[in-house]
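Long-time lurker, finally posting.

We've been working with Membrane protein involved in the export of O-antigen and teichoic acid (Roseovarius litoreus) and I want a structural starting point before designing mutants. I don't trust myself to interpret raw outputs, so I'm hoping someone here can both generate the structure tokens and explain anything notable. Sequence follows.
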Amino acid sequence: MAQLLTVLALPVLTRLYSPEEFSVLAVYVAILTMVQVLACLRLEIAIPLPEDEVEAANLLALALVSAIAVAVMTGLLVLGFGRAFFVAIDQPVLPTLSWLLPFGTWLAGSYAALQFWSTRKKRFSTLARTRMVQAGSGLTAQLGLGFASAGPLGLMLGHALMAGAGVVNLARQVWCHDRGALAGITKLGMREALVTYRRFPFYSTWEALANNAAIQFPVLLIAALALGPEAGFIFLATRAIGTPVTLIGGAVGQVYLSRAPEEMRAGRLPEFTADVLKGLVRVGVAPLVFLAVVASPVFAFVFGEEWRRAGELVALMTPWFIFKLLSSPVSMVMHVKMMQRAMLGLMATGLIFRVVITLGAYRFDPTLIAEGYVISGAVFYLVAFWVYLRASGAGWGAVKGCASSFVLPAIAAVLAGLAVRALFAGVSL
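Top reply, 14 upvotes:
Generated this for you. Predicted structure of Membrane protein involved in the export of O-antigen and teichoic acid:
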């Protein structure tokens, strides 16, 4: 429901804010996304893993302290170098709004730590409610400030609230129900937990940074190099197609992480992973294929003719997001099996590959820079999907199962999409 609210609000937001203002938001989100993965030093990912509640509570404390420290460091960097950096990437509006970066970092980091604790406790209904709070808070800010003609501030503040507005509710749940575990938090316990799970800050932090930078750093390049608000079109396209992927993949990923350790101990991890992937294909692939077919005319009709380019990008992004839908939830297998070093290598390679392809497309033809970015995403997530399959032990059997579940829904989605396009062909845009 929370994701649905954000999608329903997009037609209003695209009429309150221009593509140029969405481009400013795209740059802010790109920077924030890269910084916020450092906030908890990836210790939040380890919270569901220990069998001992006190050890998990010490990991929670470490993650929350780290979020504060990284937010403070972000603020100092913004004060010292922010203006020069934003001018260098042709974003003169951002220096006055850069205070939102440390604020957004702290909110997102704190929420991530508390979210993984709630996942450990299997409080999925609580997480669903907090996502509604996030969506409601963020959209209220974006719509209210949009009607007040506040410019990019409304989009940026709303995004920060969407990332972390549920912190208070999750913290209240932890305080009310988990005081016994919290009472075991000590400096010694935190130190021991840090030593035990040192692979997460040492390897997973840089892996996550490389993963996010592979997606977001090219957006900064596009904002700096492309003519016009191309970054804004990319942002709307990824928001539209990424919403079902985030909704489905995020929920499945939380369940996968909560069950994968016990499935691995029971020797059922390959079968469990294959079943998860089949479910993802049955539920998630057909809507993405349908969206790809109808995106261009529908975007022009729903968001306004000036946003047709975003619809064209959605169609190109479909292979990328199909492989992302399948790979992201089961990527947690790399953490469950303590394969952080391999994950770091994969993500670092992906970062280099995506930046090189994006810049190569720009050198070949500056108007194709976005296409290069999109194609590199599809190739990378295809490779990542195979790596995660191998790590889980699922292998080719899972691929065959996914393929058999894919064909008929995809054909139906294409036919339905063509019918919708035929209807829109007669609509004056």
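Before you design anything, note these points.
The chain has two domains: 1-197, 198-429.
Residues 53-88 form the longest helix (36 residues).
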